[in-house]
Amino acid sequence: MKQILTVANKEFHDGLRNRWFISITGIFAILSIGLSYYGSAVSGSVGVASLSSTIASLASLAVFLIPLIALLVSYDSFVGEQESGTLLLLLTYPMSKSQLLLGKFIGQGGIISLAILLGFGASAALLSYQQGAEEVLPAFSLFIGSAILLGLSFTAIAYIVSLLVNEKSKAAGFALILWFFFALVFDMAMLALLVGTEDVMSQQGLTNLMMLNPADIFRLVNFAGLESSDVNGALAVAIQSSASASELFILLGLWVIIPLVLAIVIFRTRKI
Q: Smallest Cα–Cα separation from 63: which of 125, 176, 146, 140?
């Protein structure tokens, strides 16, 4: 455990000194405050939007930004160390490959989680001041908690990519392909499937397929409690037969654990 915490501490403090952390936190804060205040501009009014509209807007934004940022921050965690020759040096220290990987995951995951908490927490503070903390904090706790799990799941997926390739450029390419697939292609395929098999695909079948994408589970967690006017498309159909929020949180947690275990297995069996 001491070795894991030592690596995690180094990764976390390296992340704090990196301009990535400041940039990510700033982007989250500016966009979340902007959406909270100007989210109702499309309806012709300017001011703090309703909580339901704000969560819907933030979730729609976060489902694209968080996976992309997590993949870009983590894709070179191992292949980058290998190219620079530091991975072999790290493995000469008295710790196992599993301890090294878990330490990196805790450190980098902590940086992404802190950026999400500070960035989107700014929007929660603004809405709490305007509408009262009793209504805002439970909704934002659900949103920020699921956003952190989404970021951790794509960090673990990025580790698998980083361990399966031998060049940083290839890892970057595969990371972008994965982001494109999970954020865009998967939903378009689901919509096409829904339209093409209108009388064959049941709502429960559609929901089960959406569990194969952590981004869609994140959407279901946050959109399930919103007003129906804020949700449309295949997501609206899936929500009607969706699992409870706690079950969806467990599924999102499995999307963190399973890729992380796979990354450990790959790292332990790989020759450096």
A: 146
